[in-house]
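I am still getting used to backbone structure tokens and would like to learn alongside you. Would you supply a protein for us yourself, any chain you care to pick? Start from the sequence, derive the backbone structure tokens from it, and show both lines together. Go ahead whenever you are ready, and we will take it from there.
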Amino acid sequence: MAVPLAIESVLSRLNPQQREAATHGRGPLLIIAGAGTGKTTTLAHRVAHQIAEGTAPGRILLLTFTRRASAEMLRRVDSILREMQRAAQPPSDENDAEASDSLPRETDDTDPTSVTPSQPATASSAIGSKVWGGTFHSVATRLLRQYGQLIGLPNDFTILDRSDSEDLMQVLRQELKLGQDDEPAEPGRRRKRSSRFPLKGTCVSIYSRVVNTQLPLRGILEQAFPWCLEHEEKLKELFNLYVDRKEEHAVLDYDDLLLFWKALMEDERSAAAVRRKFDCVLVDEYQDTNVIQSGILKGLTPDGEDSPSSATTPSRSTHSVPPPSATSSTFPSTSPAPPSSSSNTTTAARSPSSKRPTASSPRPGNDTARTSSPPARRATPAACPLPG
């Protein structure tokens, strides 16, 4: 049959371990491999194989960590689909062969459709472009535009980039008169680093670290910003005002996109709606996920045993690494620990289901917990403080 032959034509270039991962059936899949061993190629072939086996492209969710990685992944998927199309429809004569060879080839363009403006889109490129591929933040934005109202978020919310977040933090910093009473350094002496209230960029970095690690503010200060420890109480006041001001104006920063997506997966109605969209969830570079992103994946796929899934992770080792020879259907039960310099493991992804996970969303700086869901007309997830 033409279709199996088409699949075989693109799978034949993979080694046995890569092929096993690319053609893995239903259920969770863990790929353990080192850098440069073909994990991205394997994942791209898995996406194409899922499409060839009948999974609708629009029901595949492919998550990456950078726009460039997302564009590259979708470009590879599109290239594989074009090759399968040529194999499934062999040219009948020399003219057809020439026409087949003239189909758009891979380019260096970062456009996810990988079709240059001067080239007509092919059927395969149109199929590949329907895959829900993107970074966690871009996918969060799309889903929140569609389903955010179910958790009280207006669909016309505004997104603050890093620069905007710093500017808002500076306005609030001045409003609270933080740093204005810093004592000037004595003539001829440098002021002690710990005596000055942190600048706006540092404040945003501290806030983001607290949100994404789900750790207490004090722990973050002790670990990464020890010179700011004396300003802990003022930072709490600043961060709470920052959250309130964003809420008042219905704006979200990059961290909020993940928090709201997580809140979306904690609400029974919205979580069920999102899960119904996808049959297959694939995650590249899973070891780079933070606690919030790990919670999102668990919310998307609480029962991963019943649906197709896949994920990859590169090694952080600086030494020689083995080929991608290890695959597993067992996933970590908790979010991955920060990768060490000698780690070759861990990746996880599961597939959608209808069960509702339990979780909470943080308001940095608080010391007691609340578990309420985002009420209507609120522009932030539930004001749950970080664990003590």
